[in-house]
Amino acid sequence: MNKLDIKISNIIKHYKKLKVENPDTWVEFCAEQKNLYLAIQYAALATNKLKKRNPHQYRLKQTDLQVFSELLLSLEVDIAKAKTFDELFLIISKRSVKGIGELTKYDTAIRIAAFLKLNPEKIYLHAGTKKGAINLLNKRITTKTISKDELPNIFQTLSCAEIEDILCIYKDRLKSLDTA
Fold first, then answer.
1. DSSP 3-state of 102
2. How far is residue 136's CA from residue 117's CA, in Å, rounded to a whole number?
3. Which of 12, 20, 88, 145 could form a disulfide with 82 if both were Cys (CB 3.0 to 4.6 A apart)?
4. ∠ CA 98-102-105 to the nearest 5 degrees?
């Protein structure tokens, strides 16, 4: 293993430890709902079983999240038909609600996908994740997604959702990998 792989391996180990100690209670809560309607509602409102809002959505207005939730609930039949995460994300991301950005749409899709048992098959690049990917790959990225095979081999054993999370959480550490 080269120096870069060792550094990335340490980031991955730290991430896995972090996830064990701090599981995503918003995703878990949506996954355990008794029906899709409730999963959509809680996912769009960004709340967990303690009725706490996800930190990614803290700054959003409750009224904007409510409008977003109602819009997605009106699309329950279409959401139920989604066979892949990409189809689900497309249904959600095409919808425009004032105050709701790409990160919220992605997070909502991940939460609903947990209920539907769908997993992303590519890495979706919202602001933080895109910065992490640019820092890791040391190149300009103009696409909204990247595939796992564009990343160093050490990432290949991770899911695309895990990679998305790592690129976002460790975006600043990834910038200094090749020079540190």
1. helix
2. 29
3. 88
4. 85
pLDDT in tens, the chain (180 residues): 788 888 899 999 999 999 999 999 999 999 999 999 999 999 999 999 999 999 989 999 999 999 999 999 999 999 999 999 999 999 999 988 999 999 999 999 999 999 999 999 999 998 899 999 999 999 999 999 999 999 999 999 999 999 999 999 999 998 877 644
Amino acid at 67: V
Token reading at 161: 């959702």
Structure tokens at 104: 């919220």
Token pair listed for 9? 């391996």
| pTM for the predicted model, two decimal places | 0.91
Amino acid in position 176:
S
Q: Report the C-alpha gap between 53 and 25 in whole angstroms.
A: 10
For residue 169, what is the enclosing H or E element?
A: helix 160-169
What is each CA distance from 34 to 52, 76, 166, in whole angstroms?
20, 14, 30
